[in-house]
Structures are given as C-alpha cells and as structure tokens.
Amino acid sequence: MSILKMNKRELSCVTFRNIKGFLTPDEVVHIAKTMGAFWAYDYEAADKGKVGMHAELKSGLHSDGFFVSRILLEQENIRRIFSAQIAKEIGESCAIEEKPTCVVGVPDGATTLGKDIGEQYDINVLEMRKTTSGKIVLVSSLGPKEKVLLIEDFCTRGTGFIEAVLSIKKAQPKVCFVPYNPVIINRGGLKNILVPGVGDFKILSVVDWRVQDWDPKQGCPLCDRGSIPIKPKVSDANWKALTTSQL
Questions:
Q1: Which of 178, 204, 207, 203 is nearest to 192 (CA)?
Q2: What residues contact 16, with CB distance under 8 A and at least 6 apart?
Q3: pLDDT tens figures, 85-143
Q4: CA-CA distance, 225 to 223, in Å (whole number)?
Q5: What pTM was computed for the model?
Q6: Contacts of residue 243, Cβ cutoff 8 Å, sequence gap at least 6
Q7: How far apart (Å, rounded) are the C-alpha atoms in residues 18 and 7?
Q8: For burial by CB atoms within 10 Å, which of 111, 113, 120, 177 has the most?
Q9: Torsion angles phi and psi, residue 75, rounded to 5
Q10: Contact 146/101 with Cβ under 8 angstroms?
Q11: Per-residue pLDDT for 10 more than 90?
Q12: Over 90: is that where the pLDDT of 191 sits?
C-alpha cells in the first residue's frame, strides 16, 4: 500500500526496511500530519472569520506551518525510517575524507536521531543538552582530531544548529566538522548555513517543504488578520491550542 494512503495504525507497522528509496515531500508531510506532528494555518477558515492562532518560532519569526519532532519521532519505527533516510543522504553526499568520527543530534529534537546515526555508522555519539535557560552545551569530552557530524530534525534559519556548532568549537577549538547539516525537512528554503568563525555547512535534507514565515517587525499577514501568535513547543497546552484554534 502507498504511504500516502496509510492511516496511523498502518504507518505504525512500517519499518525502514519497507522503504526502498527516498521518501517524497508529500509522503513525509503525510506521515507528519497522520502522526499529529504537523500543523498548517487554515486560510479558508480564516476567510470565514476563524482567524485562530499561528506559530511563533524560536527565531522570533511568525509562521503558517509547524512541525514537532517530539511527536513525529515518538514511535521507534517512524524514527528509524527517518534515521535511515538521513543516513542515505549522508552516504551519497560525504566524500571518504569527510567521514565523521563522532556524531551528535542538536538537542532536544534530534538527540535520538544522532544516536541512531551513530549506531548505523558505528561511531561515537556525543552528548549535548539544553540548560535550564535554554542554552545548548556540550557534555562529552572531545579530542582535537575528532571529525564531528551534527544532525538536526528540521531546518528553518539554522539558529539551533549554529548555537550547537559554536558550543562544540568553544569546548574544543581545534575540532573539525563534517561540513553538512543533515535534516529530515528543510522548511526554510536555505541551501547553506554560515557559522561565524567556522564556515559553511550544506543542508542535506530528506525533503524540502517550504513553510512561510515573516518577521513581525516588518509585518505579519496573519497578525494583520487578527490571528494570535503562540509558541507551539513551550507546552502540550500550547500545541493543542494552536492545532484546535480554527476548528
């Protein structure tokens, strides 16, 4: 059966071994929607007066779409599917001299993805965490000859990725990085991420799925409609409020 026709129960039975090639953008978004991990602003409902809420991103931008990796990757089989897809992208893009010696998932969304990739490549998995203030820090010790690969769940503007790279560089100034940012979904339209003082990282995405976002200081069309911005990842209550605000 086609991925696009599967319900949540059927998707729960699929394994990465059932997926022969790369997933299409429509398939990835269908999985996310079916698992309850994707929200999109309903413009038709807004035209009928139900303006509801819209997403406020970590970067401060406002958006008409939002993915939640915690929900998407909650089931092990789904997480393994996306880990395998990311590994394929890495395998097809990395030259031999770029092969990583260790890997880490940008916390918290990609922590388990990093562990999966480390397992598949049989390399050391580093530990990073967020402090109570939300700052990303490296917990593991790191030698100067290591070649680090960072994994991310979704990419919008690369805010978390840049913070994670700089945190590792601060802990070990002589460390080398694999010059890629592997992600499940590139939702921001970027091709590369420039990390100050480190260099360019090419985004390797399983799929690209452009979601619109706006700087509210320059004008947000959803705010103009009367829609209220809300931070979806702050709590389950916020996510529920966002996803039900136009029903």
A1: 203
A2: 77, 80, 81, 83, 84, 85
A3: 999 999 888 876 788 999 999 999 999 999 999 999 999 999 999 998 889 999 999 99
A4: 5
A5: 0.91
A6: 36, 39
A7: 16
A8: 113
A9: -85, 130
A10: yes
A11: yes
A12: yes
Q: Is the Cα dihedral 27, 78, 71, 57 positive or negative?
A: negative
Q: List domains and CATH numbers for the chain.
A: 96-208 (3.40.50.2020)
Q: For 64-91, what is each residue's pLDDT tens digit?
A: 999 999 999 999 999 999 999 999 999 8
| String of DSSP letters for the chain | --GGG--HHHHTT--GGG--SPPPHHHHHHHHHHTT-EEE--HHHHHTT---EEEE-TTS-EESEEE-HHHHTSSHHHHHHHHHHHHHHHHHH--GGG--SEEEEPTTTTHHHHHHHHHHHT-EE--EEE-TTS-EEE-S---TT-EEEEE-SEESS-HHHHHHHHHHHHH-TT-EE-SEEEEEEE-S--SEEEETTTEEEEEEEEEE----EE-TTT--HHHHHTPEEE-TTS-HHHHHHHHHTT-
The residues, any chain, with a CB within 8 Å of residue 19's CB and separated by 6 or more, are 81, 84, 85
| Structure-token pair, residue 83 | 């880990």
* Residue pLDDT, tens place only, 17-28: 999 899 999 999
- For residue 56, what are its two tokens? 């406020």
Measured CA to CA, the distance from residue 82 to residue 78 in angstroms comes to 7
